[in-house]
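Worked example 3 (structure in, sequence out).
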């Protein structure tokens, strides 16, 4: 068999014409799945400022109450314009928590039972919940209804991420590059499309309704574009053995490299001996999770720092002298961040970073710098923040895609599918902790 067009990691196209077409078709399918899966999640964060502002208006149909005695402003805005910061009464971190906590709960629990749910049904649930999220937020008349819509987006994104990451083990490892790039594309597409359409004059409600096309694209990408192995359990709960793809063809499942028992135990970080065949039991899954901590912790730290910035600090970095309004500045912060994410999540095609811990440290430096900038207000203009958030996105996207690629290459075939799903809790855990931290921080700054 001609393998001349494959490198050692299996990231290049197979030699045969038919195999090569299927290879790139699957990469393209995973790109679209990554984009569609994260799209609603990203849009809800980009719309967070508008969602809260809209509901503050909707919940006051009668003339507004008199301003507090210490408010010397005559502004009609519901923002806190009497203090140092132009704040919404509710932090955008509230939207972040609604957008991530359901995802975190799914990622903590689902890896232990999700194997019993067929992939086809999982994707169908993702499509339905994503559709519901756009509809609920579009037609919302209260804060709780908007938050419920955000929760549906979270369920769709969380279930989809762990399912699609697990699904990659049935395909050539190159589909991880497509998935990572697609999730980065979701950030840019969601943030830029929302910012562009609203700035062009569409209301946030109409903009969200336009995005109902996204769940349709997800269905087409999964059910019609992907080329599945013949034995893949699409609608049955039976567990198929993941295939190792060599030269684009599905061959009998076998280890990618020969490892003796000692090496396998060292990779898992535990002295417990794992069986070489059969379904993983609960104890084995716990052993695998212990070995995954070295991947999960750095990823959680990166995401804690960057979402602490995005949902706790960016709303407070407002430059009144800019030609952009507060809402527009917030949207473009999110957009530049997502462009950075797209660039770095697509970098796996040409660049590999093994030391994710370094990225975690650099992201923490960003968080400290911008916290000081909010408190001391020493940054000169909005463009400085735009550069920093672009760099922040580069760090976060690189940490994500390189973490999962490392897991894919450093775990055995038998535990790889579970490992990809279980490790996905890292980013959600970091984001959840950042949201919980950002809420009291927002209250503190807005009270100054």
């Amino acid at each position: 068999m001609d393998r001349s067009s494959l490198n050692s990691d299996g990231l290049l196209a197979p030699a045969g014409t038919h195999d090569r077409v299927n290879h790139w078709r699957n990469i393209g399918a995973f790109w679209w799945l990554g984009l569609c899966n994260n799209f609603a999640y990203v849009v809800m964060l980009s719309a967070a400022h508008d969602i809260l502002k809209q509901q503050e208006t909707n919940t006051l149909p009668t003339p507004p109450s008199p301003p507090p005695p210490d408010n010397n402003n005559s502004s009609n805005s519901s923002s806190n314009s009497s203090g140092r910061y132009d704040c919404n009464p509710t932090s955008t971190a509230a939207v972040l928590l609604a957008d991530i906590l359901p995802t975190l709960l799914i990622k903590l629990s689902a890896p232990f039972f999700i194997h019993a749910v067929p992939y086809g049904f999982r994707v169908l649930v993702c499509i339905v919940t994503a559709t519901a999220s756009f509809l609920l937020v579009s037609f919302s008349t209260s804060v709780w209804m908007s938050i419920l819509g955000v929760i549906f987006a979270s369920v769709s994104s969380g279930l989809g991420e762990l399912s699609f990451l697990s699904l990659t083990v049935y395909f050539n490892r190159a589909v991880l590059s497509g998935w990572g790039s697609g999730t980065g594309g979701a950030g840019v597409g969601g943030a830029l499309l929302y910012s562009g359409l609203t700035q062009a004059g569409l209301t946030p409600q109409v903009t969200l309704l336009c995005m109902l096309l996204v769940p349709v694209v997800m269905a087409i990408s999964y059910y019609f574009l992907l080329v599945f192995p013949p034995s893949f359990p699409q609608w049955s709960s039976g567990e198929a053995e993941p295939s190792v793809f060599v030269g684009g063809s599905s061959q009998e499942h076998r280890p990618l490299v020969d490892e003796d028992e000692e090496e396998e135990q060292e990779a898992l970080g535990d002295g417990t001996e794992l069986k070489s065949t059969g379904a993983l039991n609960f104890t084995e899954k716990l052993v695998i999770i212990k070995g995954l901590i070295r991947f999960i912790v750095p990823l959680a730290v990166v995401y804690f720092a960057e979402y602490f910035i995005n949902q706790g600090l960016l709303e407070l970095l407002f430059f009144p002298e800019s030609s952009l309004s507060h809402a527009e500045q917030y949207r473009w912060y999110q957009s530049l961040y997502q462009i950075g994410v797209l660039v770095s999540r697509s970098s796996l095609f040409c660049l590999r970073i093994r030391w994710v811990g370094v990225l975690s440290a650099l992201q923490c430096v960003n968080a400290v710098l911008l916290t000081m900038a909010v408190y001391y207000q020493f940054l000169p203009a909005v463009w400085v923040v735009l550069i920093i958030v672009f760099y922040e996105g580069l760090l976060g996207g690189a940490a994500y895609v390189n973490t999962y690629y490392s897991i894919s290459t450093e775990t055995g075939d038998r535990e790889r599918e579970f490992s990809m799903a279980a490790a996905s809790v890292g980013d959600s855990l970091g984001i959840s902790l950042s949201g919980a931290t950002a809420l009291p921080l927002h209250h503190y700054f807005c009270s100054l």
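Notes: The two ends are 70 Å apart (CA to CA). The longest strand covers residues 244-246.
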